[in-house]
Amino acid sequence: MKKPKAANRYCPFCKKKTNHKIKQLSTGIKRGTLTRGSMSRARKRGLGRGYGNLGRYGSKPPINKWKRKIKNTKKAVFIYTCQECGKAHQSRRGLRTSKVIFE
Ligand SMILES: [Zn+2]
């Protein structure tokens, strides 16, 4: 899906059409990456490194590649920032796409 970087849209704060900057909302950082018993903590301890069979810390995922990819698309959420008042608002509905390209 292609999307422009800026567009003329209705601003609910200015109550008129103004120029808006468009940004895609990201999922952000993963929660609990450094919790007890996590993979990243084991990696920091030095487990799962080297060669040979690494057991549960090995590189192979527990589920096959073709089994993992069930959902190919996600709902993309866009943030529209008004260039006049500087306030931001979201799009009403999310569109299902695999990739968003800003041009
Ligand atoms: Zn505005």
SSE topology sketch:
Layout: E1 2-3, E2 6-11, E3 16-24, H1 39-45, H2 65-68, E4 74-76, E5 78-82, E6 88-90, E7 95-97, E8 101-102
Parallel strand pairs: 1-8
Antiparallel strand pairs: 2-3, 3-5, 4-7, 5-6
Bound molecules: zinc ion.
Structural class of the secondary structure composition? mainly beta
Q: What's the CATH first level of the domain at 2-32 and 63-102?
A: Alpha Beta
**Order of helix and strand elements from N to C terminus:** EEEHHEEEEE
Q: What percent of residues are in strands?
A: 25-35%
So, CATH architecture of the domain at 2-32 and 63-102?
Roll
**Largest beta-sheet details:** 4 strands, antiparallel
Distance between the termini: 10 Å
Question: How would you characterize this protein structure?
Answer:
With 103 residues, the chain is mostly beta strands. It has a domain at 2-32 and 63-102: Nuclear Transport Factor 2, Chain: A, CATH 3.10.450.80. Helix content is 11%, strand content 32%. It has helices at 39-45, 65-68; strands at residues 2-3, 6-11, 16-24, 74-76, 78-82, 88-90, 95-97, 101-102. It has a four-stranded antiparallel beta sheet with strand order 2-3-5-6, with no helix packed on it. Strand 5 and strand 6 (88-90) form a beta hairpin. The longest helix is centred in the middle third of the chain and has 7 residues, at 39-45. 4% of the residues are buried.
